[in-house]
Each structure stands twice: as structure tokens, then as C-alpha cells.
Amino acid sequence: MNAPAYNFAYLDEQTKRMIRRAILKAIAIPGYQVPFASREMPMPYGWGTGGVQVTAAILGPQDVLKVIDQGSDDTTNAISIRKFFAKTAGVATTTATQDATVIQTRHRIPEAALHENQVLVYQVPIPEPLRFLEPRETETRRMHALAEYGLMHVKLYEDIARFGHIATAYAYPVKVNARYVMDPSPTPKFDNPKMDNCPALQLFGAGREKRIYAIPPYTQVVSLDFEDHPFEPYRFNAPCALCGAENSYLDEIVTDDKGGRMFVCSDTDYCEGRQAAGHHGSLSAAPYKERAHGGSNG
Amino acid sequence: MTTIAELPPGFADKVLSAQSTFRSVMDAMARPGSVQRIVPVAGTPGPMMRGTAAIALTLFDHDTPLWLDAGMSESSDVVKWLKFHTGAPVVQDSSIAAFALIAEGTALPPLERFALGSSEYPDRSTTLILQVDGLDAGRSFELRGPGIDGVATLQATIRPADLFERLSVNEALFPRGIDVVLVSDDSVVAIPRTTRVANKGS
User: Fold this and answer.
1) Residues facing B36 on adjacent strands
2) What CATH number corresponds to the domain at position B179?
3) Which of A28, A141, A219 comes nearest B179 by C-beta?
4) Radius of gyration of chain A (CA)
5) Partner-chain contact B175 A179, CB within 8 Å
6) Chain B residues inside the 8 Å CB shell of A220
7) Which residues of B touch A14 (CB under 8 A)?
8) What range defines the domain where residue A251 resides?
9) Full domain range(s) for residue B151
10) Half-sphere exposure of residue B59, counting CA atoms within 13 Å on the CB side?
11) Which candidate from B120, B147, B193 shows the least CB-CB separation from A219?
């Protein structure tokens, strides 16, 4: 009775074949959402079941897996998915972006530039960028078939008419390879430029909505905009309070009930790496951490 | 007559061999023109090359209708081996095939006979697995498109000689189209429908 309770990486082989075929089509048609027979996973929808299925279908024993949730390696969702694959596939895990071969992410793209030997797997809640403009799947599918994206431009224009600027701050629509309009998942629009001409393969999995899509490496990804209202990545104008970075995406953290708050890098690996390299922010006077970065995940 | 017991074997380790083969094919598809190696070894019935056999064991099952060219279908070993190891149905109508296995490129049917997908579902298209003579020497082809940093150069000995001219229909058809996986022994190169090819001659 020493047989393992699960197949390698949890999913059965027939499911993996089905997902793998969908991934190949997704890469061949950049930005097009390929329907797939999403399975129930041992975690609820909304916890990354799409990303987990994509990761399970590509992961091998030689891979080194990193999982982030809003940029952080240390939140519940990231830790539980990392442990899930450490247990069911026995793969090595890391928090260092550079060392990972597969990075599963919820709502962020790491600050460190990705390289060719990496695959970035996004967890996607609503894959259809037109869904909140047109609820009928038959209609949105036809709009994609005809490349009829006027409605999305009207939506962005209405932002300008009401607020004076494009107020969409996350899940900012992009056009992939000059053809399909795609939802980059709820990443902040700060991350959109990183998708363009990225050396790494980017895969997107939506479990509840049963869609897989992809951006091959070195593919043009353009954020939709207007000539007189060009796309602008948004970043709160402050340095990170811990590492002093002036070019990273920041989280706002409330520190007391008197209005106190601090801004810190959302990418914990990037922030810890900078602190280890001697960078300091305004609130990092205290000795930072005794444990060296990159140690156990404990 | 070959009995089941005499058929060439499948993968020794179904799970990890399929994973390794898939990653090679995925990398090939994501980086058109790059030559990827398929490491796992399986039996090779009839005219089937090592790479083709590994791809079949990795991607084919009862959900994927197969179309075989004459070179493949004339070999009863190929048909039996595919049936035993993958369970994939072999169809005569190439326009409903998920995959087509081509042993003899010179006899490649016109691409319109395969499934090209629809505008609404461009993924419902046939993927061609085309066995070629070599992916390390021969004519040079300049490839551009998603997955390629600028220009990729492929040196290959391919039949039919006008394969890339024929594949130029992909440009007009997009997002419909045909994706091709070229196999030579244990090497694979993918030409997805987004890849544009300029023939550099010899």
C-alpha cells in the first residue's frame, strides 16, 4: 500500500492531455480564449483553480516553482498553492523570482525582469474583457471573431468624459499581436508594459470560466488608449518605506487608527532583495530580519 | 500479423515522459523555428519517427480524431499501435481531424482539406504532425512573428518543398489556420499559424 494517493501534480493524465492541447492552441492564437474542460480542484473557485490546472499540466520534476499573490510570496493563497505542488509533485519551490522556472501569480507581474527559461502562469477570475459591457457569450464571441472592439473604446472614452482621464486602474484591456483584445487579469495597469515583448511565456488560466489563453514570448501587447489620452501606468508617488525603491508598485498599509499609513513594495521578493543589498527606506531603521532571504519557506 | 504483445512499447514512465515531451512541444510552439529535443523514448511502429511517437502518446486520446496519410495508414502496426496506446479514433475525413500524421510530405493534401477552425472557434483546427528529412541542415528560412525575437533562422530539409508557400494562407485566414509541428527523429520545430516565413533560398 505504498502507492501515492495522487498522480504526479494531482491531475490525472487524461485531464493533463486536454489542458496541454488547449495550451498549444492558446499559444498558436495569441490572446484568444480557448475553452477547456476545467476540473474541480481541492480548493474553491476564486482561489486560483485555473492557474493551478495550467501549472499542474506543465510542471515537471526539474521545475522550480514560485507562487505569488498580489506580489507577495507570504500570503495564504500563495503559501497553500506552493505547498500543494510541493506535496503532490515534489517540486522545489523558491521565493526568488530569478531562480524560478514556473511562476504562478495572482494579480501581479514580478518587478524583476523575466527571462526566457520562465513561464508565468496567471490566475484569472473573468477572462472575457467584454463581459461587463456585453453579458451574452454568443455576442462577445462574435465580437472577437469580427475584431469588433468599438464598445471597449467607448467604455474608455466614457471614463474620460466622466473623470477627465481613463480611470481603469486594473484589468486594463490590452490588444495582443494587433488582433485580440485580452484581459490581463486584475493586475494593476502599472504592470501592463511588462507584458509587451516579454522574453517569458505567459499563460492564463480561468477555472470557473473554463478558459485558457496565452501570450507567446516576444509578442506585441498594447494597452488600449487614445492619441490625446495615451496610456499611463499609475504608481503612487512615494518611495517604498522599507527599501526606498522609487520604481516599484506599492501597497498601502494602514498602521494605526489615527490615519497613519505606509507604502511598501507589493513584490516582497524584490523588496527583500533590495534591503539585503543595503537599500533602506524611511521606516526601515530597525534591524530588518535575522533570517537570510531565500531560506526555507517555513 | 502483429499481436498486441508484439507491438512496440509506449513510454516506460507514462506520466513524466508525457510531461517532458509536452514541455518540448510547448517550447517549440512558443518559440517558432527553435529546434527542441524530445528525450523520452517509446517504440516506433512502421514509418513513425521517435518524436512523432512521443507526441502521439502525449497528446492523443479518445477526444482527438486522427487523420493518417497513406504512408501511416498502410502500416497496420501504426494503426494498431495508435489504437492500443492512445485509443484515438482514426477518421477518413481530414476536415474533422484534431491531428494529422504525415509520413510522406510529398503526398500532403491541400491544406483546405483539414479543419481550419471557425472565426468564432479558431482553435477547432487540425494540427499537422509532419515528418521531415532534417531539421539541422538544408534550405534556410527566415521566420518572424510572435515567439520570435526579431528573426529566427531555420535550416531544414522539408518535403513538400513548397510547404511554407502553402502555409502563407495562414496570413489571410488568421485567426483561423493550420499549426504545423515538424518532426525529424527526436527533433521538433513548430510553425504556428502566426509565423511568417521568407524563403532565403539555399
Assistant:
1) B188
2) 3.40.50.11310
3) A28
4) 20
5) yes
6) 146
7) 61
8) 235-298
9) 7-103+114-192
10) 30
11) B147
- What does the pLDDT read at residue B6? 87
Give the closest-approach CA distance of B177 to chain A in angstroms. Answer: 9
pLDDT tens profile B133-181:
999 999 999 999 999 999 999 999 999 999 999 999 999 999 999 999 9
Residues in chain A, overall count: 298
Task: Tell me if chain A has a CB within 8 Å of the CB of B88.
Answer: no
| Residue B112 scores a pLDDT above 90 | yes
CATH number for position A209: 3.40.50.11310
- Mean pLDDT (chain A) is 93
Select which of A51, A198, A205, A243 is catalytic: A243
Residue of A28, A58, A61 lying closest to B193 (CB–CB)? A28
A271 classed as catalytic? yes
**Residue B93 half-sphere exposure toward CB, CA atoms < 13 A:** 3
Q: Of the candidates A30, A54, A212, A209, which has an alpha carbon nearest to the alpha carbon of residue A125?
A: A209
pLDDT tens-digit map of A74-84: 999 999 999 99
Count structural domains, chain A.
2
Pairing of strands A211-215, B134-144: unpaired
Number of domains making up chain B = 1
Looking at the complex, report in whole angstroms how far the Cα of residue A54 sits from the nearest Cα belonging to chain B.
Answer: 12
Is-catalytic flag, A205? no
Contact criterion met (CB < 8 Å) for B16 and A16: no
Respond yes or no on whether ipTM tops 0.85: yes
| Structural domain includes residue B175 | yes
Q: Which of A178, A193, A223 is the last residue of a domain?
A: A223
Please tell me if residue B33 touches chain A, with a CB cutoff of 8 Å.
no
